Amino acid sequence: MRVAIAGAGAVGRSIAGELLENGHEVLLVDKAPTAISVERVPMAEWLLADACEITSLDEAALQRCNVVIAATGDDKVNLVVSLLAKTEYGVPRVVARVNNPKNEWLFNEAWGVDVAVSTPRLMSALVEEAVSVGDLVRLLRFSHGDANLVELTLPPESALAGTQVGEVAWPEDTSLVTIIRGQRVLTPSTEETLEAGDELLFVAAQAREEQLEDLLSVRRGDSDD
């Protein structure tokens, strides 16, 4: 997979390193000469250019990229890069970094963004996830379909503890994608039995989040009322 990353700062280089370790082809683009540190990510391609300029993106051959990541520290730049990547080059997947949470509402399909990653929101979500059992925590927002990646740790008193996944009447527009149980990451088959303490990851429509939380948090005995 070929990935172009706009922004070769600490965030961009870190992402590049992870992708390269996983066998992907990576191009880092930055207009600041001081940001071009080939020795830090030697396996990546580097391009000194303004990612907001069409001529620069032509040089980067963005049309050959499977994914573009707008990872600069400037939200305006990230929005422009996302829009150009999607509308001018038809990049299938565009991921954008949100630096200021107040701008998060802009990072949507209208600006070419498939996935918006807000570092402050993600950090706060991880804090909530660490201390919350039985509460739904929103980890990531997807622009298409108004869907979110959400997590809930199944409380011991939940009526669903001991129930097979296939027996649960999940809300519409909701999909259980992963069960994290201790050190194990499980693909949720219909025969898999939910256990207290399971971390459940869902992709769910925002309108279904409250219904999902109610379903997972209902206590034994309450479900029979």
UniProtKB/TrEMBL annotation:
Q: Which UniProt keywords apply?
A: Ion transport, NAD, Potassium, Potassium transport, Transport
The record's listing under Gene3D superfamilies reads: NAD(P)-binding Rossmann-like Domain, Regulator of K+ conductance, C-terminal domain
The record's annotation in PROSITE patterns points to:
RCK_C, RCK_N
Q: Which residues form the RCK N-terminal domain?
A: 1-117
Asked if NAD is a keyword of the record, the answer is yes
All copies of domain RCK C-terminal, residue ranges = 137-218
Q: Is Ion transport one of the keywords UniProt gives this record?
A: yes
List the InterPro entries hit by this protein, alphabetically: K_uptake_TrkA, NAD(P)-bd_dom_sf, RCK_C, RCK_C_sf, RCK_N, Trk_Ktr_HKT_K-transport
SUPFAM superfamilies referenced in this protein's UniProt entry, alphabetically: NAD(P)-binding Rossmann-fold domains, TrkA C-terminal domain-like
> Which protein, by its recorded name, is this?
Trk system potassium uptake protein TrkA
Native source species: Streptomyces gelaticus
